[in-house]
């Protein structure tokens, strides 16, 4: 099941939820109970490597982003 990261605009907390792709856009309640959250995109460790243009498909399993963007 893909994992999505969300950020709460009420308290600033970030948290992850594993949920079916069909529910990725559904509201996610933060651990503090706030409903004002936004889904973060492409938060999986891409980048940070100098001279590397874009995701490296050889870098690991699960597609270009580890499945976070649904590219599988
Ligand atoms: Zn919150």
Number of helical stretches of at least 4 residues = 0
Give the termini distance in whole angstroms.
11 Å
Q: Globular, elongated, flat, extended or rod-shaped: what is the shape? A: elongated
Radius of gyration: 14 Å
Mean pLDDT: 77
Helix content: under 10%
**Could you give the order of strands across the largest sheet?**
2-1-3
**Classification by helices and strands:** mainly beta
Which small molecules are bound?
zinc ion
Order of helices and strands: EEE
Low-pLDDT residue intervals, each spanning 5 or more residues: none
Number of strands: 3
State which percent range the strand residues make up: 15-25%
Largest sheet: 3 strands, antiparallel
């Amino acid at each position: 099941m893909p994992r999505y990261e969300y950020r709460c605009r009420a308290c600033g907390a970030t948290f992850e939820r594993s949920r079916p792709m069909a529910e990725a856009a559904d509201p996610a309640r933060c651990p503090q109970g706030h409903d004002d959250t936004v889904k973060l995109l492409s938060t999986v460790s891409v980048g940070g490597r100098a001279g590397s243009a874009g995701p490296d498909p050889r870098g690991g399993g699960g597609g270009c982003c580890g499945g976070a963007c649904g590219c599988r």
